[in-house]
Structure formats: C-alpha cells, structure tokens
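Quick check before the chapter quiz. The format below is the same one you will see on the exam, so make sure you can read both the input and the output lines.
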Amino acid sequence: MEVRTWIEAYGRAWREGDSEAVGELFTDDAVYRSHPFREPHVGRDAIRAYWRAATASQEEIDLRFGEPIVAGNRTAVEWWAIIRENGEDVTLPGILVLRFAPDGRCEELREAWHYRLTRREPPNGWGR
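Here is the expected output.
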C-alpha cells in the first residue's frame, strides 16, 4: 500500500468512526501510541478498542493531512482536525510518525497532538 493511500484510508476510517477499517491498516502486533504520555495500544484488537472509544463522541469531522515526509519505511505527516465533540467545537492539530511493514500495513504509530476547545483553522502555509 502506498503511503498516501494508507493516509487516505486512515482519514476515511476516522471520519466514519470505523474501528474495523482502521484495524485493517495495522499489522497483527502493531504498536499504536496515541499520545507521548499514554501507554501504547498493542495489537489490532487493542487499536480497534481505542478507536471505538476515541471516536464515539466525535461528529462533523473536518480532517486534513499535510504533505507526508517519507524516508524508507518511515513517514511523518501533520494532521488538523476540527470536530464537534459533546456539543462543543474542538480543534486538534497533530502529527503521526509511522513505521510500515513490507506489506504496507503500519507496524508502529506514534502520535502527538494538542487539544483546543474552540474552532480554529490551520495557519497559512500549514501542511507543506
């Protein structure tokens, strides 16, 4: 799977809250670290469970990805999400650092993000 195809599928799964689809993007023993200070979710079942919980209250997801930076089997990509969560507008900018297996599925995802209780568009030049 190409990096851009993987990112598009990940974004589609997020927008649709589809934990099954997101699970298929990862290897059986993948490590998903959703935040630098959180314990990782290890394996597809744990990743799916995390996703069900994380996306359950999200609606009206405006999700964008920047240009990915690829070096061998590793990729970094910025993301920017504006979400309606529990009746409030929330802005979540973040970055994914990904490591891919030879079959194109992700074997490690590390994520860092910031949470702001407001609606905020990305700054000029974002994502390049």
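If your answer matched, good. The beta strands are 26-33, 41-42, 58-65, 69-71, 74-85, 88-100, 106-113.
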